[in-house]
Each structure stands twice: as structure tokens, then as C-alpha cells.
Design goal:
Elements (H helix, E strand, L loop, with lengths): L2 E7 L6 H14 L2 E6 L2 H6 L9 H32 L9 E7 L11 H10 L4 H5 L4 E5 L2 H4 L14 H14 L6 E4 L5 H16 L7 E6 L14 E12 L4 E9 L2 E9 L6 E7 L1 H10 L2 E14 L2 E8 L4 E6 L8 H4 L2 E5 L1
Parallel strand pairs: 1-3, 1-4, 2-3, 4-5
Antiparallel strand pairs: 6-13, 6-14, 7-8, 7-11, 8-9, 9-10, 11-12, 12-13
Amino acid sequence: MEIKKIAFTGGPCAGKTRVIEKISKILKKDGYYVINVEETAAQIIGTEIVPYNDREHTLRFQEYVYRLQSMKEQIAEEYAEGLVRSNLDLTKDKKGIIIIYDRGIMDNRAYISQEDYENLLNRHDCNEIKTIDKYDLVINLISLATTNPELYVLDGIRYEDVDVAAKRDEITSAAWLLHRNLKVIKPTKVFDEKVDIVLELIYKFLENKEKEGLDRFVLDKGEIDLSRYNSDNSRKIKINYVACYDTDKAFVLSKRQYNGKISYIKDEIDPESYKILGSKPISHDEYVEQLLLTPIQTVKEKTILSVIYNGVHFNLVETESGLLTLEVDKNNVEEIPNDIKRLIKRKIG
């Protein structure tokens, strides 16, 4: 039985909690065992431990959030793994186990500086890329503060005014751009429409069909201007791929490098259809062991500039041969910036 970890993120007033409540019920009814990890910051604030504007107090509060969030995630994951090992009646008829996180550890970044965030991770022997690769799927719900500020409202937990909330939304979105399977959803006029979009993405992910929603285009590399893309709206990651084949199995090992840090991912591949059957983070030792024990067929390298601009997510992918391509959700092709759109030479596939 597989365990899938899905993180929901987004700025204040993005609808995360309501969406999670709705889809959790639907997934349970559909035969999945669902574990919900509730939003940690809201939980702490509910105990009257609240953040203030001064840096010292903010850093202390984010330390509390990190520690409690990490503990909750560890407990949820250990419990799920125990269910798989025990093969209890509780889960024997289930399609799989899904852990849903209402915000993840990367969300701390929206409330402190990049330097303070890196220091926070370092104190806990972690870094951005290892942290982000813990989750299998990330769904980023864009805040109303960004797209429809007139509809943004405060409540007992949400304390940011609309301008602060919009900035939080921007920083939060950028913090998750390194994820290998990030889905960004803009606000919808009808709540159930957002739920339907999220469910479709989740089911595609569970069926290993998440790439089907993307369009890919070859770009004219010679004219591209990337000056508008910076640390506020983009992240650049270098990935080395090693495709390994044995008599009865195939997999791809990815070495993901960002800001001097490294993470490793193993993708199980169907040797006949070449479709991805599953993906999981592995350690450096596991990566080396796989390289030593399995014949290596191909080695490739590419650099990905992942961008979120006006609530639209897209990737600019450059291969070692110099080919530059655009990857974007089929529904968002018309919303990419004109300076990128005009460089499209042809569609791939």
C-alpha cells in the first residue's frame, strides 16, 4: 500500500482549509485512508501564543511553528508507515494512504527573511531542497489578496491586512517553486469549481498522470530576457538525471542541486511504457548504492528556472545541448508573459 504526502500552501485567504475539508471527505468516500495534519500556526495562535512585529518575537514564534510542524509530520508519517507494516483491518480494503498537510515547513519562509529562514533550517540540520522534497505533491492556492483584494477579509486567526497578505502570498509561492510536482491554482468564482480542479489534480497524481496537464514549447533562446525574474518570483535548480535499467526494472535517479545544497529522488519507471510509477526521496548513500549496483543507460542534465508570475506558474527548461523549452499548464498558456510567449517557435508533441 502506497503512502502519498500532499501539501497545501498559499497566502492568507486562499481557501486552503475549506478545500482540504471537502476533498478529505471525498477521498475517504472513494476508498482512501486520509490523515489530516492541521495548520500549525493557526493551532499555536489559538492557544494565545501569537506573533508580533518585532524580529526577536517573530523568530521565536517561527521556531515554535517549525518544531511543532516537524513533530506533527513525523507522527503522521510514522503512523502511516505502521499501518502499512501491520496490514490491519483498518486499511486492508483501502486504495492507499494519503497524508494531507494544511501548510508545510516551507511556509515559514513567508514570515521571516531568507537568511533567517536558512538559519532556522540549519539549526535543525536541514535545508530548503531537502525540506521541499519531503512532499510528493504541492498544491498552491493563490490568495484573494493577490487577485481579488476587495474580497479579502480578516478573521480571528488571519491578522494581515490585504497588502501584507498579498506579499505573503508572493513569498510563499516563490518558496515552493523548487518542488518537482507543484500545481498552482488561481481563485475561482465558485468554491466548488476550485474543489473540482484540486480533485482532478490529485487523481492525476495518484494515477501518475500529472504530466498530462502540461504543454511544452520550444523557445527562441537567442532573444530571451530574464531580467524580470528574480528571487521574489523564481528559483533556478540544476538536475542531473541517471536512467538505470536492469533485467526486470527501470528507474531514474535525480540529483537536484540548489544554492549549494543537494537532494536525491528515485523515480520508478515502467520499462515498457516508460511512465513514472512512483517517486520518493532517497539518501546520498542510497543514490551511490543504486549507481554501483545497476547498469547505467543514459545520463542527462538540465537547468530549470521555475517562475510564478501574476499567479501563473511555468518552467523554463534548458538542456545540456542548449535547447530551451517552456512548460506550462494547458489552461494557462495564454496567461504567460508576452515576452516569453512571443519566443515560442513550436509546440512539442
